[in-house]
Amino acid sequence: MNKIFLVLIVLFLQACSSGFLDVKPSKQTIVPVTLEDYGMLLDNENVLGRSGPVTLNFIGSDEYYLKDAIYSSLPTQAPNLFQKQAYTWEKEIYTGAELRTDWSEAYEAILRCYVVLDGLEKLSVAADQQERFKEIKGAALFIRANNYYNLAQVYCEVYDPQTAAKKLGLPLRKTADPTLNIQRATVAETYGVMVSDLLEALELLPPKRVHVTMIEPTQQAVHALLTRIYMQQGNYKLAAKHAEACLQIDGTLLDYADLDTDAAVAFPLWGYGNSEILFYNSIVSMYVYQQARMNVSEEFLDLYKDGDLRKKLFFTLSGGSVVFKGTYSGREGGWFSGLARDEVYLNLAEALIRIGKLEESKFYLNSLRSKRIHKDVYIPFETNDQEELLHFILDERKRELYFRGTHWEDVRRLNKEGRFQRTLVRKIGEEIYKLEPNSPRFAWPIPPDAIRNGGYTQNER
């Protein structure tokens, strides 16, 4: 391993004092010197893989609920109060005393990417290191785009082509220099940067994972993320194009019939050994959605019919409550929030039916279902009604992608269509809380530290 200096560097101190997007300084930070040093900045699984910046979208989801006694027991100290506030979609959720937020987690990762990209521009690379150079640059571009995408689903309004050029997006850094004063770009500009980064990364990364780590970006992961982006934008033709390209590289699915439905944890820890995972992310554990506290919504449980292997793989009875266990992270509380091949199948099925390709849509839908339903009862879903198929696919998303963070994203984008609008509801005692379709509260407030230090415009709630 090449020599790395561990020192307190000015860059991160400036980042804190000048309000670099609410990223707190690290006492010991890698100062990259060689190509492999830059690679190591992107090889930290704790920072880039196990701190997924979408915890608020999990907290706000109606896939689960808390019993009244559990809700009352949630911590009310300033660093953790936001969890209780977010559960009922309050106008203000942060106190300013939080130790970590989705905003700070994502921008810490983004800062690493800028350090890498800035450094690579100045680095002399030998001919025999060119492929590695491409891998590292492509990885930085992908990780930056992935974190911008996650931030946009948390802190920006949903993409609408009619308003995207006017609505507030994210602060978009062009270099790692924390002294530059920037403001929020538009939603259109934010998505434009994501797509630009990913299209460039596509030319640099290998098709499939070649290293051991689960946070290694690949062409498959790029296609999967582009598919998510185009689904949010309602560009189903391009969503289908990239989903098909992803599955052409490798379309292998797990056969759930081969898994132990009685196992306490259905899938391997940190995703290692799960061949469906394309890029690993999981969220940090929090009080509000720990397994012992959350109860699976009966609406979602009722979607699983007899013979559906997912019901026993995903859920179990604990203390009189039905709780979730079937996360691809293999870790209770640190739920999987990354990219996986099964989601790509469903994205493709939905995109294809939206552009009128019914038979192709059914093919990909049933290819997935055949690996999820017991063979003794499996029957391919058949219909010639496009609307019926679309509704079935959307229900299948709820079944397959339970508690991955995608439901919140789906609700936001589908609320743009009157026929799919959904009101989220919480009942605590006799009090009812509602989050109405297209409410501004689907964009969470930016943390106070970031607003104060960066001078950003706060989201209207």
UniProtKB/TrEMBL annotation:
Pfam families given in the database record: SusD-like_3, SusD_RagB
The protein, known as: RagB/SusD family nutrient uptake outer membrane protein
Principal subcellular localization: membrane
PROSITE patterns assigned: PROKAR_LIPOPROTEIN
Domain SusD-like N-terminal: 20-231
Lineage, top ranks: Bacteria, Pseudomonadati, Bacteroidota, Sphingobacteriia, Sphingobacteriales
InterPro entries linked: SusD-like_N, SusD_RagB_dom, TPR-like_helical_dom_sf
Signal peptide stretch: 1-21
Ranges of residues in domain RagB/SusD: 343-459
